[in-house]
Structure formats: structure tokens, C-alpha cells
Amino acid sequence: MSGEVLVTGAGGFIGGHVVRRLVESGQPVIAVDVKPLDSWWQRSAARNVVADLREPTTCARLTRNVRTVYHFAADMGGIAYISENDWRCAATAAITVNMLRACIDDGVGTLLYASSACVYPTSLQGADPVPLSESLVYPEAPEGGYGSEKLFSERLCGYAAASSGLQVRIARLFNVYGPLGSWCDGREKAPAAICRKVAEVALGKSEDVLVWGDGAQLRSFLYIDDCVTGLIALAQAGATGPVNLASDQLVNIGELVEMVSEVAGVKVKARYEEAGPTGVRARIPDIGRARQELGWYPSVPLSEGIRVTYRWIYGQMGHLDAVTCGHH
Ligand code: NAD
Predict the structure, then answer these.
(1) Is residue 81 helix, strand or coil?
(2) N or C: which end of the chain has fewer CB within 10 A?
(3) What is the pTM assigned to this prediction?
(4) Domains of the chain, earliest start first
(5) Residue 312 Cα, ligand 1 centroid: separation in angstroms?
(6) pLDDT, tens digit, for every residue of 235-250?
């Protein structure tokens, strides 16, 4: 099938990496983001467009002659950001409505939607956690404005597909990390924030590492390269239901701090602040469907991905005084 591939949110973390992989594989790509070009985390040899997808006519203009859309544009961030910005996160639904309408009108083949583990009920992620398989979304209790928007947008995708020729693919992503993403702008997630705080110790700018919660929060972290492979496999697959993309290597936050310290070669003292924003207690993915339907399984061990991520963040700190970050 001819036509271009459109990637929304291409100036962001995941979108930027997906664009790069698609361009490297020789595909014609339109990359769009609302941020000015010099604020994109990376730029590839794509048709890079700065545009606001809250504007319906912009979406309609971009989807002409496009065969596949990877839809990542969203107003989002780590737990601190999403817990303080319900409205901003929820309002991202407008972008998805615009994109779906444009895809239907222009006869786009497939739209891949980046959903999140935040769609799963928080009650399954407490002291007695359940491995989250895709069917466990009901009874609905998503996490705040961010999770509600993701669940609603998944449904929008389903309705759009049911009423048109558009195929939709839904990736439920669990904590993706790696270089070339937020690490110091208030939207960073735990792995980047911990890498930054450990690097501050390594650089003599800080004496200890402040960690939100008691360190026992259980998580899995998916390295960006594995994530991109899974997303592209999903876009090309026949799967129509949502598919979890996650690592099944579980780690608690205290262990993650230790792992980063080891990679950094510094001894750090973790200072736990239980009142900080921590999210759910334990988030355990079930990745059986991705394995079965896509033949996908994450290949990068956490220690390896953290090594690359730490080195990148440490390098970034040479360009910026870490104390100006201010998101501790
Ligand atoms: P990101 O913040 O790095 O990228 C999102 C990009 O969307 C940003 O560059 C932003 O400028 C752009 N954007 C926002 N509003 C826009 C608009 N009106 N018009 C055009 N562009 C706009 O986030 P990310 O980590 O790359 O996440 C990408 C997607 O994956 C998001 O939908 C996110 O919810 C989802 N997701 C990410 C993770 C993760 O761990 N990173 C986990 C679950 C789901």
C-alpha cells in the first residue's frame, strides 16, 4: 500500500524514536508536533511539521495521502504532572477526535493509538496486585484525568473503526524509558528523575537522592527500543483489541535507585518522602497477548537500558545547571 506514515507527537520522546526507526527503514514519514522544531528531542529526515492538532483543519490537511498514523500527541508527563493536571491531560481527547475524524474522511488505513496502563482500575494495583491482562479494565476506575482520557480515547478509536473503514490498533504502554525524553522539565518519569538525581550526587551538586514514597512501589520499565519494535509490530499486525506493551521484569523504586547508583559508580543515600506523589502501589503487566499475537517480547534488560539512559542524562547535565531543574 502506498502513502506516507504520519507520526503525531514526533517532537516528544516515543514519537521521536518511532520516526527515527521508520525513516531508517526507508518509509516516507510526516512528523508533527506543536513544539518549535528546536525543542524536539530529536529530528530525523522526515517531513517535520510544527502544527497544533487541537485545530481540526490542521489534522485534515496532514492526513491526506497517509496510509498509517501513529498517534502519540498528548499533554502528559510523569506521576507528578498527571496528578496535578487532570484537565490538561483529559483535554487531549480533543486531539484524538480531530485525528480520527481526519483519518476517516481521508481514508487512512490504520491508526495506532498510544494508550496507557493508567486505564486499569487502581484497585487491582494495590497491596494485593493482579497481573493486568487487557480484559481487566472493568469495572472502570482509571487513574485520574489522564487515565480517563486514555480509556475514553480507546473507545473513540473503537467507535471510529466500527463506523468506517479505518483500522485501529491500541497499545497500552507501561512506563517507557530511555534517552531523548523528558528528564528535567516537570514531565519526567521515575527512571529519568532518578537518573538525574543520582547524576546530581555524582557531580557533587547534591548529597542525597529524594525519592517519593517508601521505595516499595512495584513497577516494570520498558526500554524505548523494545517499545518502538512492539509499536511497529502492532501497527502492522491484525490484532484489533488493546495490547499491553511492557517489560515483565519487575523492580521496586528502591531497587531502581540502587541500580542507577551502581551504573553511576556512586554511593547514594536515598531519602524517602512518603507524602510525595507515588501513583499506584504495584503495577504488574501481563504481556501474554503481545507475545502471542505479535511474537513480541522485550529484549533489553533494565540494567542495560538504565546504563544508556543514565549516560545520556549525565551528558545533558553538562549543558544545564541541574539546580535549575527544580522538580525534586
Ligand atoms: P511526550 O510528552 O514526550 O510527547 C508527546 C508530544 O505530543 C509532545 O512533544 C507534545 O509537544 C506533543 N503535543 C501535545 N499537544 C499537541 C498538540 N496539540 N499538537 C501537536 N502535538 C502535541 O510523551 P511520550 O512519553 O512520548 O508519550 C507519547 C504517547 O504515549 C502519549 O500519548 C502518552 O500518553 C503515551 N504513553 C507514554 C508512556 C510513557 O511511559 N512515556 C506510557 C503510557 C502511555
Answers:
(1) helix
(2) N
(3) 0.96
(4) 4-176+222-245 (3.40.50.720), 178-220+249-283+301-322 (3.90.25.10)
(5) 20
(6) 999 877 999 999 999 9
